[in-house]
């Protein structure tokens, strides 16, 4: 299925809406479909006329913010809508239509099997703290030929098939339907036909019905701590969500106890973080590994209530990070003789963290070092078999190899991974308590193991799971790189399998 072409005939064959999408224009690229739809409306285009583009060079979102619409394989569309106004205030009526659009996208994604979808006040679609879709409505005033109705342009952008997890800028904030469906390519023609039908239905809902449905799928809960961003004075404060109002505004209470009513064009709210995933980037950390790990986790962790932060040696030693640590992640390390004693002490501190209920994920050579530490009683024994390891900068090519893996979690099957180590790093299944093997090398030896130590858990990953296929440090042939790229979503699912079991 081609990701950069859209079959208009197939879309129209599946379209069941009465008006929305009946008249349809598809473009390879345009500046913005919002302006295209307005131009068509002014030229007499009927209600429901839709204009879709594969790419937009000047896409815009709420508050005239720039919207990245450069990817192919997504849906960027604007509808002409002849609206009978519900509110005297056009902005409140725009809000109502934006909520209708969000609800239509929500239902379409749910039908696909996407899980964990939420409507983030007012009109964004979030999955695991990452944005998947946004809705923009612009009221252009009375219809020239019918003053009882308003001319509105309804714009919807949905990340459908783009691999935004690997985008250098969007990976921390965005996701796509394909990313949430194990890499399965979504049929956009079917998706858009269904979304157009739902949009038409949602636009006809009463204010009360629309309000109740929007609240049902809302990301925020009443009395939940939130971070409040004011577009009026650019201030950020912490507060509490007090109430959703049926005119699409909300009541907020700040830290001083003051309560006020906020509209989405003046305020934005986000969940407050309650935990942190720490990525070690101290002296021993290979820069390319910690950079890749930060990027990988930023795209996969549910960041609704969790932040991701780097942890240097000073902070590691102080120990204050343990108070809100949901997970400590350590990637490839580079050690020489003078690092051995400090490494041994770090492993002792880390094991103490685990035994007291913490969770640590180690990958690459550090997982082998930690296993050696557990099986020994001194720093000399811990590192007696270690060889100097490659440090390198974040953008320096690191010699590596492709490893074949068979996954044991879910129905994920075979996948390829990247390893800079010449030999497979393996683990005995007797490591720790209640060990569970999540992946094996081609020879059947454990490659990913989860074990319990005291009250906590340790995840040992023998290859460099932080490497996807886009990193500058990857050194592989074209064929090997293709194998790495073609199974990237399966590796994502392996990581998600681990993260989700620890509430992340």
Automatic annotation (TrEMBL):
<comment type="similarity">
    <text>Belongs to the biotin--protein ligase family.</text>
</comment>
<dbReference type="GO" id="GO:0005737">
    <property type="term" value="C:cytoplasm"/>
</dbReference>
<dbReference type="InterPro" id="IPR045864">
    <property type="entry name" value="aa-tRNA-synth_II/BPL/LPL"/>
</dbReference>
<dbReference type="InterPro" id="IPR004143">
    <property type="entry name" value="BPL_LPL_catalytic"/>
</dbReference>
<dbReference type="InterPro" id="IPR004408">
    <property type="entry name" value="Biotin_CoA_COase_ligase"/>
</dbReference>
<protein>
    <submittedName>
        <fullName>Bifunctional protein BirA</fullName>
    </submittedName>
</protein>
<dbReference type="Pfam" id="PF03099">
    <property type="entry name" value="BPL_LplA_LipB"/>
</dbReference>
<feature type="domain" description="BPL/LPL catalytic">
    <location>
        <begin position="9"/>
        <end position="207"/>
    </location>
</feature>
<dbReference type="GO" id="GO:0004077">
    <property type="term" value="F:biotin--[biotin carboxyl-carrier protein] ligase activity"/>
</dbReference>
<keyword id="KW-0436">Ligase</keyword>
